[in-house]
Amino acid sequence: MAEIVSLADGIAEVVHDGDIVVMEGFTHLIPFAAGHEIIRQGRRNLTLVRMTPDVIYDQLIGMGCASKLIFSWGGNPGVGSLHRFRDAVENAWPQPLELEEHSHAGMANRYVAGASGLPFAVLRGYVGTDLAAHTDTVRPIICPFTGETLTAVSALSPDATVIHAQRADRKGNVQMWGIVGVQKEAVLAAKRSLITVEEIVDTLDPKPQQVVLPSFATSYVALAPGGTNPSYAQGYSLRDNAFYTAWDTISRDRDTFLTWMREHVMRPEHVARPQ
Amino acid sequence: MTVTAARQLHNGTVCFVGIGLPSTAANLARMTHAPDVVLIYESGTLGAKPDRLPLSIGDGILADTADTVVSVPEVFNYWLQPGRIDVGFLSAAQIDRHANINTTVIGADYAHPGVRLPGAGGAPEIAASCREVVVVVRQSLRTFVDRVDFITSVGFGHGYGDRERLGLTGAGPRVVITDLGILRPDPETRELTLVSVHPGSTPEQAQAATGWALAVSPELTTTEAPTERELSVLRRLEATLEGGRGVL
Predict the structure, then answer these.
(1) pTM as predicted
(2) Least buried of A112, A121, B106, B154, by fewest C-beta within 10 Å?
(3) pLDDT above 70 covers what percent of chain A?
(4) What is the ipTM of this complex?
(5) Do both A78 and A11 map to the same domain?
């Protein structure tokens, strides 16, 4: 059964130095508060995994938390580059960042394989591209029934998956709706998981096209209202598009970035913020 | 460019849409000549009908107005992979004479790139599995290169027959729309050929913005100018982006 804990305790329990860590959320429900807590706890040498690294991984990379990134699209959606990601790849700042690069379809299937307890997944993909030559988690495989050559991608089985959802009940059952991305698969693929939520309620009344993660399938739930800002939680908050645009300027310069992180993420009142 | 891209979609076409120009073009088509075009966004929203332009691929308005919202594995495995989608829109940082696309790195050395680009996203499988692909890209010597530095998404490989040899199920790029004109693959060689120039542009300008000897169709035409209606709907759509916010 999932245990309901504070955000700080939850991160301390699930994310350790050197871990393979997934934080998913497809534009919607990105777990920013949890990412900031990982930065404040000073985690190092993480292998960060995410289909669309987004601003949250730009912040983790720029603060020196990551030594490797497994991903399929690394940009600031609708705005442009992720400058901290690019600075790490192009100039090894603040440290070198090893890349393992896939397509969205490949990443999604890697989570499915992990969630299914299989060592790999099969898809039609990557054929004719230069991606496979740079990624040893992509291999050709022959169908035993038809003889057709398909593509195998190895399973993702992260040490920890951290996501944000709309609600949980007091037993730790989690409910999310709207664009649900690949979070269910990412949680089920992981050894440990933490789900931050907008609110904890007595009963989860049904929502259209909801995804429910039963309490027995997750490790920890933490209350973090607004914990997805500047991303959004359908029914609770709006995406702060102006911040995504502003991030382009904030993140372009190393000192401006560090100053912003010190003022907005690292200050003691953030660390001590009651949950 | 946007109007020409919108005209590629017919009423009822099932279209895989990315954010930016493709999303604008697809919604323009839906609000003008193709009211029943089906928009599928890779965030898992099938049949989205936004009344304003979405600001991101995961904008709440897409989920609110969709026929159904599915997971990301489902959108790729059940909907894209088996060939249920008619048209996929792609853009490119580099495109070559056989319409291969690079969105990964600029520079020959992958490990030490001159410019690190965002990467593949959904593009490789869109290029492989949509029944056909429409590429929309500004034409310049930087983007139109003889060979791409990295093949992120396959157009026609090295030419005729390569897609079939690779086992790719979709037909590949049917048309490339630029700010100067329209290119189509030659039926025999699969080399991109200039078939139309936009009003005010010339084949010489297109050649000057292309990093190889650009083939020009003997039946070169001039692109039909946007109509008043297309332009007014486009302006109204674009105005929804200004000061726009995600919805609850």
Answers:
(1) 0.95
(2) B106
(3) 97
(4) 0.94
(5) yes
